[in-house]
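Morning!

This is the sequence you dropped in the shared folder:
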Amino acid sequence: QVQVVESGGGLVQAGGSLRLSCAASGLTFSSYTMGWFRQAPGKEREFVAAISWSGTGPSYADSVKGRFTISRDNTKNMAYLQMNSLKPDDTAVYYCAARHRTQNKYYYWGQGTQVAVSL
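The structure's back. Tokens below.
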């Protein structure tokens, strides 16, 4: 059974940092692209960042470029999202998702972790 579990969310002041973690189990982690998405209240879920199964060519939404860094550790079946210079607009539920390298759709999703950024 595949499980994707996020952790590390919380409340932080604007300008602060948080590191989100994503633990995946029940799949061959090194064969999956890992992505982070977020959904703010009243808004649709949006792409934040992704990193390929090999760790190359991370991609980012324009809104987080230069502030967020995605990484992964295939030896631990973990993905991470380092978030710096946080803004109130970054407030959202953050989701981790897995997409097999041969597919174009994220199939496995976590339950999400709440990030709240105050002024």
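Headline: DSSP finds no helices and eleven strands in the chain.

More detail when I'm at my desk.
O.
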